[in-house]
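Reminder: ligand-aware prediction takes two inputs, not one.
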Amino acid sequence: MCFDDLPERVWLMAKMADVMSERVMPVEIRFLIEAAASAPSADNSQPWCFTWDKHMLEVRAQGRAGSFPVDYHPSLLAYGAVSENLTQALSALGLGMQDWYIGPPDVEGRFAYGPVSSAAVPVPTARPWLERHTSRQRFDSSKHLPDALLNELGRLTQSRCTCRVFTKPEQISKIALLVKQAARIRFRTQELHMGLAGSLRFGSQPEDYREGLNVNTLALPPGGRLLLKLISDWRRMQLFNRFGLYKALAAIEASTLAESTALVAIMGPISPVDALDAGRLLQRVWLQVSAGGYAGHPFYVLSDLAMRFADGKVSEALQMEAKKTVRQAAHFFGEERGVLHCLMRLGMPISDGEVSSRLSLEELTCKGIRSAQ
Ligand SMILES: Cc1cc2nc3c(=O)[nH]c(=O)nc-3n(C[C@H](O)[C@H](O)[C@H](O)COP(=O)(O)O)c2cc1C
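Here is what comes back for the chain with flavin mononucleotide:
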């Protein structure tokens, strides 16, 4: 439902019903929804909505206009991150996950749902999931993550998904090179370019940034904002690409990775169940790193190339280049461990960057499905 399309009186009634439902929603349900909704998603697409009927809390896959399909691999990773946050939030309330379903979206789009009884303990003030965010700033190369933390990360698993930690400079250089190759392809792919351009948010008010990629979080060099606006037009991007813009942009993307002192690769089989588990694992790594005072920054470009190549979605002109990169990446990360679900660089940012915001509770309520009022 779009409130803007309704006559004013109906709009006011709808608005009041939502305010009412917010008022009567138990504090523990708000705690759980806040935890779930703070999960990361590709381009901050937040492809989910919530219902609460006084007994059951449900989270459903919900595509947002112009954004990724709900069954897209990064959406499954994001559902995994939501599920991980929910699991940890339920545990913080002293509640278990008995009778909960966590898995790929069912026929009704539900990917996490279950009963919630009254909290066994007072609602905690600590909300570790709010400490996590994507840091795109440069990382201080003199501030290494402690070995104990890196070893712990390397041991984390979620069902069949595993976590590989890279700290050797030659490994990091090799990964940065693979990311550069993949990014060179990405910046010449119209569909991906248009998807990114459509998710960029340049607004001036806080409400302009509740979903989509807030450009202020991108750590752009001087003039970067203007350049992004210019190249949002694909024809202009194609023109600049004739002069090698895609190479320059790919080099910038890979350089932040090359400077890292630690990278994590989330590996596992490719099925939807495994993708959701990979998302849970990614989020667990990220929460653990944040709790230690460090930051994480995912790089999806290499995984995206491999998925698109496997699905036959890479254009004819870029096939050879894509095949070479995909083969080299599979060899480097180890095919026996499955596919690379996501990469993430870890470190200590040199400065605080702006943090993404989220849709309101009202916008996150599944429309057309009864919630408790
Ligand atoms: C599956 C997945 C892939 C992502 N890929 C990238 C990426 O390639 N580059 C990047 O800068 N951020 C990436 N992100 C981070 C999202 O853009 C970020 O989570 C979102 O904008 C919300 O911001 P927050 O993490 O600060 O809450 C990815 C996140 C997820 C869940």
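Residues 1-20 have pLDDT under 50 and may be disordered. The longest helix spans residues 73-92. We will return to this case in the review session.
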